[in-house]
Amino acid sequence: MIRTYNSLTAALRRQNRKQYLLLFLCCFVSVLLITAFVSIMRSPTVLSVLPEGGDSRKQVMMIFILSVVGCGVFTAYAAGLFLRYKGRELGVLLALGASKRQVGRKLLGEMGALSVLSCLAGMALGVPLACGIWQGFRLLVVDTEEMALTLRPQAALFALVFSASVTAMLLWMAWRALRRTNIMEIISEARRSEPIREVKRWYGPAGILLMVSGMVLGYMAPGFFLEVLHYFPPEAVLSLFYLPLFPGLYMVLLHTVVNGWGQKKNRYQNIIANSMMKFQGRQTVRNMLVITVLIAGGYFGLFYIPTISAQNTLSTKLQPADYAYHYRADQDIPEEPEIRALAEEMRVTVTSFRTADLARLTIDGTTELETETPFGITLEVVYMEELRTDLFLSESACRALTGEAVSVAPGKVLPAASQEDGYTNISRVTNPFTGAVLTVEPEGILENSLLAGRYILSDTDYAALTAGLPTEWRERQIFFDVENVSETYPFAKALFNAIVDRSSQSVAVIDGWDPVIRERCIAEKGYYYADPDYCEANGLGNVDYAQRESSAFRLYWQYMPHFRVLDQNDFTKTVAVFLMLFAFVAIVCFAAVLVIAYTRCVTIALNSRQVYDDLRRLGASPRYLYQSVRRQVGRVFAVPALVGTLAICALYAFILYFNGSPPGFTPSELAGYSANLAVVAIGSAILYAVYRATLRTVLRSLRIQPQRRGRARGIQRTI
Amino acid sequence: MLYVENLHKSYLVANTSVEVLKGVSFQLAEGEFVAVMGPSGSGKTTLLNCISCYIPMDSGDITLGGEHLSGLDEDALAKVRNQKLGFVFQDFMLLDGLTVQDNILLPRILSGGVDDMAETYADDLCRTFGIDHIKDKYPSDISGGERQRTAVARALINHPLLILADEPTGNLDSKSSRAVISSFQRARKNLGATIFMVTHDSYAASFCDRVVLLKDGTVYDTLVNAGQRGAFHDRLLAAVKAMCGEDSDDTDL
Fold first, then answer.
1. Of A131, A687, B104, B223, which is least surrounded by CB within 10 A?
2. Mean pLDDT of the region A255-265
């Protein structure tokens, strides 16, 4: 027997426990995923390999923002659903004389307790989830010292802020629901449909146009600002150029839900499913939008793995020598006799051995002088006769190294390049010690991935320019091949260790370190950002011989050898943190997608029970009912999956095409893109499996028998 | 006991103000059973919602048991709804998670708790309305008529000055409708209840002492029952026909 208001609300809670549980789970999952995401994203393990201001960090941040917005919208949806159910109950209590204060206190208390508990549970389990997935990667995929996960308390702070926002949003929604001016409005809330206003047929094509505009504008804007206006606005401003994507996406989804695509032969076909979707329009489209964006974000994260894997596979496969390394001439690095002795000791047969002298000379070019303003960075393009240094070799040395009949006329320069790495045009080469200057004119290109970025001069020009260069400005380049290269990993490892062990601290510098830039920087600012002491503070990878297995060392050391077998075998380990980070991001996004789509479909069942009972009474056949449910559930999964997948595939292709100069696809990009399509196939198969499971749950809930597919044309006649 | 004076109420529909009640005035004496009839859109439910304090009125005055409702704040209005009014809705508005007896006691629970006396009174009401045997069942387990009789019992639990019923027979078959009307008659006879009912059902209205006919937001006519229910029903039908126009078949009230 219920005697008090408290026991009354407890009884109502028991009755509506499914609604409470649904809201609890939605908040819990949102906070769980965001906590896990932010824990990994702000982890020093990840931050140490993501260069500050680099593309990968920006991409992760972008997907994170989308996930936060997505989870926020999803939680708002769940809270809205909960309040619609509560609306009738609240209305009855108010109608019978409960005061708004009395009802409001209880509702806000319940909402507050529910959100705080779910957020606390999400935060508490988010960190173990992140650690669990990461450890799973280490156990099942790849494990390196660098993969050891450390977490930062700041991540918990963000999770706390997100949780507080979720709680505040839930309380605000409850307060707003109570604030309605009259009781009838509160009572009718549960029955209110959300019809979408008329959607013109041009919405679909216009949406596609906006999406394409967003992609093009967003991607092209930085280049336009940089190259045409010589001004780099703040990142937030640049992000605005992507904005047309979202209204475009919304319009496409709206058009799909309300009008559908193509000419309808029979407007009565699927009328039930279509109108039910339409009259829960706002919720449906909002959910679909979130799912679409998260699918796109998940794939975007996942695409990173095949892209760089294919790039590495192809570049190591195509590199013109099995073993290649260069070192400063003043270093005591193993040379031919030592290498041959080591090879013999390790039963490796060296089949050819080529060496060449290199010289570091100063080149001219243009640079952009940055001036920071409150509205962004203005860039002044300045030509400098002594811009930076690069490595040069003579035509005969080049012939010895490559075996190609290279010939360079005096006064000319032959730049080396590869399909992945381009070169810079130069017109003046200087020896900074003697002041000797040579005006050169570029002629042709030497295709060689191991020499990409270097320049070949005629023998006479090379001799004249390099005379008087100190040993520290001279280098040696070594290429050699071996028999059965794939079996020489121990030798490669031993040689790599020998090179690192015998390199002095003076060459422990990152790839971009340059003596001319250094001199200029120190003269202007008093320090050089690429010096080892300043690298970390400037978001650049630090080169530490003790951490020779780390990605920072392998990716950024200026003298990192290129041993085919080492690069092939150690690739996964080298970029383990990158790969696992993006895999993690994809897992979080897809988990959110599956939870949102599942919840949305389950609420179709909860909302539509009466409709399907009525249809059954009107004589609808089991097949008709099945088709109607399948169409709705299918649309919640299929439309966002299709739109999100196509949009991200198009955007990725666009980025790959335009990221090189001249625009086009390199073979490794094409290989990576093909691998991405395989990833899409796997992702789609998983989505389909969850769709089938969800459909079964919804059908069970509506007491509708699953039917075999087919004979859809006859369905209309059965009602 | 209930005085409605020059009541006006408008709704905003697509940025246009539509006046639904255009100065409605009438009164109800204690123990009276009065119905309001009128075509769809005549303002019946709006009138009831204004008297119930569910929606605010634009102008006019409603006095219930000597208390002016227009000047009351939200808490006071809630108290009026709880203590002075009883409600019966077309779709019953019972809470699914509560038993029949708990539903009947709901207004008492809201006003501060249930004592033994209230429980005894709830049992009496169950017996009066023939729902004693289902008092431990849940609304989903009982028939529409039983649900509505439960709602009538709930409306009476706080000894209200006035019962407001919105289409109480609208969702019921004729047998259940009759049972609900009988419940109102018993409530009136045994408990001295005053009932104000909005209905489309001329048969149900024919049991009332008076029927107020509403058309286009104004009182069109008031018919008084002289005692013969059948004759009153015929008069009612004729008046409705006249109100809806000679050439119209719209007697759907």
1. A131
2. 70
